[in-house]
Amino acid sequence: MSDINNVFISGNVGQNPALKFFDSGKCVCNFSVAVDEWAGQTKGTVTNWFDCRAWGKKAEYIGEYAKSGSLVMVSGRLGVDSYTAQDGTKRSKIIINVEEIKIVDKK
User: Fold this and answer.
1) Residue-averaged pLDDT of the chain
2) If I label 86, which of 2, 4, 35, 39 is the partner at 20 to 30 A Cα–Cα?
3) Under 8 Å between Cβ of 71 and 11
4) Which structural domain range is residue 88 located in?
5) What is the reported pLDDT for 75?
6) pLDDT for res 107
7) In angstroms, rounded to a whole number, what is the distance separating the alpha carbons of residues 68 and 59?
8) Contact 92, 80 (CB under 8 A)
9) Which residues contact 84 (CB under 8 A, 6 or more apart)?
């Protein structure tokens, strides 16, 4: 049996996506998506946040058309982003490496 690493989420973009261009001409876009989940009568709605990253033409598309509050559908693969925090400790977080995105705003 082969491993499967696929994820699909639908929710609203948090802050405006951050598009960054490198000297090599490549670009990356980082953004977050809020997904609401019903947690029952006592807890109500809980919001889960997912960090997403896209490269190349997808990154340019997201940077141009997705805005804070945009409703999006994202599919991709889970990955780990390792970094050094301000206090010098090594940390990591799970991100979604975007393979497809649809902006489904009514505009």
Assistant:
1) 94
2) 35
3) yes
4) 7-103
5) 98
6) 56
7) 15
8) yes
9) 90, 91
Question: What amino acid occupies position 32?
Answer: S
- DSSP conformation letters of 37-103: EE--TTT-EEEEEEEEEEEHHHHHHHHHH--TT-EEEEEEEEEEEEEE-TTS-EEEEEEEEEEEEEE
d(CA 33, CA 37): 13
* pTM attached to this predicted model: 0.87
Whether 57 is in a domain gets the answer yes
Residue 32 in any domain: the answer is yes
pLDDT for 39: 81
Number of domains in the chain: 1
Is position 74 within any domain? yes
Average pLDDT in the 65-89 region? 96
